[in-house]
Amino acid sequence: MGKFIKDRKVQQDNWMPYTGLEDLATIPSGDIYIPFEEWHQNRDQLLQRNSRLGVILENTDDVAALIPDLERLDLIVLQFPKMADGRAFTQARLLRDRYGYKGEIRATGDVLHDQVFFMQRCGFNAFELRDDQDSATVLLAFDEITVIYQPATDEELPIWRR
Amino acid sequence: MYQYSQADHQLLQERVAQFRGQVQRRLRGELSEDEFKQQRLRNGLYLQLHAYMLRVAVPYGLLSSNQMRTLAHIARKYDRGYGHFSTRQNIQYNWPKLEDVPQILDDLAAVEMHAIQTSGNCIRNTTSDPLAGVARDEVADPRPYCELIRQWSTFHPEFNFLPRKFKIAVSGAIHDRAAVAVHDIGLRLVKDASDELEFEVYVGGGLGRTPMIGKLIRASLHPHDMLTYLEAILRVYNRLGRRDNLYKARIKILVHETGEEKFRDLVEAEWQEIKASSLRLANEDIARIQSHFKDPDYELLSDFDHDFDSHLLTNPDFANWASKNVELHKKDGYRIVYLSLKSRNQPTGDVTADQMDAIADLADRYSLGAIRSTHRQNLVLSDVKLADLHHLWLELVKLDLATPNYNHLTDIISCPGMDYCALATARSIPIAQALTERFDSYDYINDLGDLSLNISGCINACGHHHVANIGILGVNKRGVEVYQLTLGGSAREDASIGKIIGPAFTSDEIVKAVADILKVYLDKREGPEEAFLAAYRRLGQAPFKEKLYG
Question: Which residues contact A18 (CB under 8 A, 6 or more apart)?
């Protein structure tokens, strides 16, 4: 993982992906995130770990299945397999707006300069940029557009009520 | 019409600056054409057969004379002296240079225009009835609702990367002039039994490879709930719409494959969660937008004008034009005038820069400074005094904008076809021109009455051939352009998809085939009051097949 932006700062990413294939007992301490399926299979064991926990979803997964666990999860990773595939925008909004998730929501995959504006509006606060992206210019992209018409995660009211 | 707020202006400036940066990165080689494509396609810039094509949004088909002058200026300065009005009420320029596009967008922004979301898999420019606010059969003015949809959908963060493009149309009259049944979402304003305004919500209409008529998903939606309900539909579509196959990605396929009932349940369930959100419109939210669309100060006029009547009696050409291209207005003494963009001398929908400037002047002189574009690729002057009609007509004749064929045979919708479009597999414009030349007798066209003929140059159906009474589809069969005929389509309130009549015709045969169809109609109709579509629906395919294929 090369370029990582969280809360509008270029940062070091300390989370480790856990594939589900490793023996849980042997993976070192530290914060890990787990595929959705594995989370459900090994939930009880994982909850005993003395670390922060995250889950990575497919963009076809129903986020409502995570409702019982949201308090315990510090990270939810949502995927953009292609730039054009925008299903994770809806996943993020549901997690924030409907289910009240407060932890980190991270975008991974085809995460490019010209989407981060939309992503932040839907509740993403962390971005694993695609390798060819320049993190300095991506940081500027959050503020290229400042006028917003419709309510979303970052704005409660439509423009005609403000 | 809607006047931009400070925020609306600022948004356009920010968007132009953003796009200028993208163009500069492209011109410096920092973005490949492929990467740039993702950006330009969000801003109406296509790469066509010969050059870039820029599509400019005309929100719900409404233009001021000042905006029209800017469109003329752009055609003259950055293009080849003309523009093309599309079936979505927008205008397209076929020859802009990439490096000029940011400047074009600056010029547009100065008159409250833009190219935002005129392409790409997002919510496109909302279209509407070109007679909104002036039609006699209007239930309620759809434009304030269109404007609310414009604001809600512009840079909607959740719905900018949908499975496929998404088109919304709104109609507010008894007669549907906005083709709501063939849009991803069609909204119709109606009155319920107690005279309260409500929407009928149609979802999943569309043309293209798999033409479908929209399904009535909700028969009664309170206007307060318009945006929350749209948001619920879009959310279901963004989550569940197919992304594995470009040709199955429109919402019509989702509705079809999910089933109407289950799709409705999904939307209703989602709507229950958000219907009380801040997107729920209050009376004052709607009233504030409605205040932008108040009636102009119409004069109190008689609906009788002596000079007009005497011109009708003495000038058959004027009378013929007035009987076809002029419609009643909701106010006595005013008329609605169609400017035909279907003359013999220009491709369908094309307007030169000089014509645009002249139209702007005529709008100022005779029609309160406003112009509308229609989905049948004509223009409208909506507020012309009866007493001015003859003066206006004389001017329009000089400008070649008075072809008396509105809603008649040669009022042809045609896509640009293989002459311009990279997708097309056959030519459309020459076929439209051949038909216009063959059927140039006004007596004959008059006799045929209300009739629609549309031409598409490939199965993507941009020429709306499926919903024409007579549809022509050009395809390429083993290296030869051939033309399939469909009969019985309609884009109005009785919407239907036309049916293929039989094997295709060559470009040499197609004009004769249309003539044969018209002959069958004239022979078999019950009288001049039975229009082509009604006769076809009564007769069925058989007599037409018989004549065409023996």
Answer: A27, A32, A33, A34, A38
